[in-house]
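step 3/5: co-fold with acetyl coenzyme *A
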Amino acid sequence: MSDPKPFCNASIIGTGSYVPTKVLTNEDLAKIVDTTDEWITTRTGIKERRIAEDDETTSDMATAAAQRALEMAGITAEELDLIIVATVTQDMFFPSTACFVQRKLGAANAVCFDINAACSGFLYAMQVARHFINTGNRTTALVIGAEKLSSLINWNDRATCVLFGDGAGAAVVRRDDSQADDVPGRVLATIMGSDGNLTDILKVPGGAAAHPVTPDNVNDNIKTISMEGKEVFRHAVTRMKEACEQALERAGLTADDVKMVIAHQANQRIISAITDRLGVPPERTFINLHKYGNTSAASIGIALDEANRQGAIQRGDVVLLVAFGAGLTWASSVIRW
Ligand code: ACO
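step 4/5: write tokens
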């Protein structure tokens, strides 16, 4: 690679997504735990979610989404020089899920690693890729958010098992050297934040090094999602709204300029609370959580790809992405589509 040219721009040139075929509806869940379609719909907006097969891994889903993104971008896997997978449900502790994706794609020239920022993972990964590109260090990155959250669910806990689903979303991000400010897909601004004081309100407490699963605790569900729902809700609304405002300000834009808000698809009420506060009407808010539930790091990638393929976002539109997740973590990106 030649000497880096500093301060290049980064643009999204292709998107892709994948969800498993198996559908788990609210009615199906009502047969497993004490819940109803009415409760889940009213509190969250979710109607159904997708569940991966037992032998379908996070890297399988990530690879399927990536292949669609590469196809749209019109590039080969060999052209990739960076693959970042955002996930909390990696195939193994190591190697990284990104290395499995590299092998499955045949992306021999890429540097590969995973990041964990929970539901903010896709936007964190986009920003990491953007920085690699901005400095001239890499030219063509594959960013993937992929999750097999069904592997972390306590199917006896009605407060959490109704919320989550499996899937993957991907974007190809490439260096653009144009001086023009209307390059399609260009990332105009990104805001990121974290608050490690609130690690306890949303976590999978066990199964890793701090609290391994042992014969004594194997039935305690320590390797499943534990959440203080109301607290998460409250922080999500505050942080996501602030992140949107800060990213728009950095881009020199206002909420009136935004054609579509694509928020982390956790809960309809969280999204409405944010867009109401921003003054963005529902018709400028993309929603697909009724079909997939909360797919954590995959959610924004899947929604961005669906919005793109359905024509809900068009070339030149200002698109506002915003995420929030465990950590706590949050992020927002403004893109000129
Ligand atoms: N079906 C029926 N009743 C239920 C269910 C269910 N699936 N789950 C909980 N309940 C009951 C509770 O037991 C409680 O009963 P009680 O009053 O007799 O004690 C009652 O419903 C109210 O429970 P709350 O937890 O207070 O319900 P709330 O209105 O806060 O809604 C929810 C819960 C949907 C989880 C909400 O807090 C929320 O969306 N929080 C955000 C969390 C989130 O989205 N997390 C995803 C991960 S983080 C992220 O991605 C942003």
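step 5/5: annotate
The chain has a mean pLDDT of 96.
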